[in-house]
Automatic annotation (TrEMBL):
Family matches, as SUPFAM superfamilies: NAD(P)-binding Rossmann-fold domains
Organism encoding this protein: Parapedobacter pyrenivorans
Domain (NAD(P)-binding): residue spans on this chain: 4-164
Lineage: Bacteria, Pseudomonadati, Bacteroidota, Sphingobacteriia, Sphingobacteriales
Name of the molecule in the record: NmrA family transcriptional regulator
Length: 176
């Protein structure tokens, strides 16, 4: 699939290549990071943003990266516990899951501790369903966030964050 737009420049590289990251960020107004699980890459992105005075960072994260505005959520806690238990019982990907959650939490910490105008968009259960135009955003335990989000709705929400200042220096959870 080829994506084209006059304001879009595609760069080929890796999250661990400082030169590629700097070339991609120089002259940008906003950085949207959707890769996840590569904390060293996020560190390079933050460093490049500071170097080139780019202030706006939007990062896809996980609902496992809890936020101080979250309230106790029994359903969410139960679902996470069941997921962990099933993976452990089956012996499937338990270590990989644990490592991925660790990396995502580490990324969330780096982003939160930066002086950038960041937004951590916390998603759970990404699906390939069609765009619903009904994205819920807020914090866990408020009774508005469900357990799944379509990729199309997530993409739309990320793009809205480019100009919407509602969640600057915040970590909303989203679902659709």
């Amino acid at each position: 699939m080829t994506i084209q737009h006059p304001n879009l420049i595609l760069k080929k590289g890796t999250m661990l290549d400082r030169t590629t990251i700097e070339e991609a960020i120089q002259g940008s107004d906003v950085v949207i990071e959707t890769v996840g699980c590569v904390s060293e890459g996020t560190k390079l992105i933050i460093q490049a943003m500071k170097k080139f005075n780019v202030k706006r960072l939007i990062v896809v994260s996980t609902s496992n990266a809890r936020d101080g505005k979250d309230l106790p959520d029994k359903k969410f806690t139960l679902l996470l516990g069941m997921t962990r238990g099933a993976l452990k019982l089956l012996g499937l990907f338990h270590r990989q899951y644990r490592n991925a959650v660790y990396e995502l939490r580490k990324i969330a910490g780096m982003v939160r501790n930066s002086d950038l105008d960041w937004t951590l968009v916390r998603v759970a259960g990404l699906t390939n369903k069609a765009k619903s135009n009904d994205v819920k955003s807020g914090y866990l335990g408020q009774g508005i966030i469900s357990f799944s989000t379509s990729r199309a709705d997530m993409a739309d929400f990320l793009l809205q964050q480019v100009t919407d200042k509602t969640y600057i220096r915040q970590a909303p959870a989203i679902s659709s």
